[in-house]
Amino acid sequence: QVQLQESGPGLVKPSQTLSLTCTVSGGSISSGGYYWTWIRQLPGKGLEWIGYIYYSGSTSYNPSLKSRVTISIATSKNQFSLKLSSVTAADTAVYYCARSWNLRWYFDLWGRGTLVSVSS
Amino acid sequence: QSALTQPPSASGSPGQSVAISCTGTSSDVGGYNYVSWYQQHPGKAPKLMIYEVSKRPSGVPDRFSGSKSGNTASLTVSGLQAEDEADYYCSSYAGSNLVVFGGGTKLTVL
Question: What is the Cα–Cα distance from B102 to B7, expressed in whole angstroms?
């Protein structure tokens, strides 16, 4: 079955760029209809939708983060990635990659999540 | 986009029913039938429990049900079991290719 796995540094310095990758296994990231998504969970708080990318490269971002976020896709590697620039301590969170079907706005498959701390 | 409003906590005894509300606006919950609910146990990823207001994914017990009235959606858990103790989050499409989440409700089985 399809699985998602996040990877990347667990510690990032303030003002630097957070970079994470999600590897899709058990299926093709180029399968039409799926929107590959990043969601984060701030410590002790709720979930925040960051944005998505379609296999064609089409993206949509949360306006609150849009100026700092880039989501890209590498279909040959079956991976998609998140870059968040100019990070501060407020960006410390568990970052999840997830899958959504056909713009029906629910997330049926999630990675395990990875904690990224922003600290000097 | 403001987060959807959920009560911080809810509780019930085994076998009882409990409802968790999720209040938004006409621009999100009230405007679209794209409300979903997620269950999250400590240290685990969220799990989809309800999508499109009231649909259950395969494998989710029928003790879990969803509904919506106006700008408020609800998740009802019937026949509470110990393993239902978890955090529950709602989410909704908010137009313009955006999704908003609720702040989460901690469900305690007494």
Answer: 9
Does the pLDDT value for residue B1 go beyond 50?
no
Whole-number Å distance between alpha carbons of B110 and B100: 30
Mutation for A interface: B40, B87, B99, most A CBs within 10 A: B99
Q: Evaluate whether A48 touches A62 at the Cβ level (below 8 Å).
A: yes
Structural contact between residues B91 and B38, judged by C-beta atoms closer than 8 angstroms:
yes
Would you call A45 and B1 a contact, using CB atoms and an 8 Å cutoff? Answer: no
Residue A119, amino acid = S
Mean pLDDT, chain A cut into blocks of 10 residues (120 residues total): 96 97 95 93 90 94 95 96 97 97 92 96
AA letter at B28: D
Q: Do B46 and A45 touch (CB under 8 A)?
A: no
Query: Nearest CB to B45: which of A64, A96, A105?
Result: A96
Phi, psi of B89 (to 5 degrees): -125, 140
**Rounded distance, CA A49 to CA A61, Å?**
8
* CB of A8 less than 8 A from some CB of B: no
B37 and chain A in contact, CB less than 8 A: no
Distance in angstroms (rounded) separating the CA atoms of residues A33 and A43: 32
